[in-house]
Amino acid sequence: MNPEKQKALKKQIDRKCAFIISQPKAGTYLCANLLANFGMYSTGWHVKSGKYREYDITQPLPKFEKKNELKKYIQSVTHQVGSFSSIIKTIPTNGFAQGHLEYQGKYIKGLRGVKKILLTRPHDQHMQSIKRFQDEMHGDTAVTEEAYHNIAGWAEHDDVFHLTFNDLIKPKYAKLRKLQTFLFGEIICDEVQAIHKALASPSPTKSSIR
Description:
Blueprint: H1 3-13, E1 18-22, H2 28-37, E2 41-48, E3 51-54, H3 67-77, E4 78-80, H4 84-88, E5 95-99, H5 105-110, E6 115-120, H6 123-137, H7 145-151, E7 160-164, H8 165-169, H9 173-184, H10 191-200
Parallel strand pairs: 1-5, 1-6, 2-5, 6-7
Antiparallel strand pairs: 2-3, 3-4
Helix pairs in contact: 2-10
């Protein structure tokens, strides 16, 4: 490998930012709140392709009476940027973003050198939570059944830390300690306090019944 390629590869490896890749309703913003409690910076970006939606991860979405009201709100927080890679490159050091990314080449390439956390949830729980979200928020997910299963393909990568919804909702403290080591190379805070603070905090899509 020539020196220039080595330098570029090292720069990718040295990137100290993270991305939460999640199946819908698998605890995306619960995990985001956890990372914030670990001391990471939340961009609030929910990314797909060349666009992102920007949310305050500590606040619930407004309540909407009609689907078109939710649609208008989504449009107001959506930013068209360019390529997926161009968005990822702007995540700051010690920052993170999130999204329901399928296991596809453009995402694999764009997240090279970025710390990746995969969140999954059993299909029956996923479907029940989707239904509650539709009823409570008059919302829907653009993720198809095929995409839901495809997202799980990220688990095949060695550089991906796999968490399940139950690891967060019924905290597996030892696993959350390992998550800190994965992200920072060391334990930097009390994971028990961090996850319980996250569980108690509001978030954009938190349901009264998870």
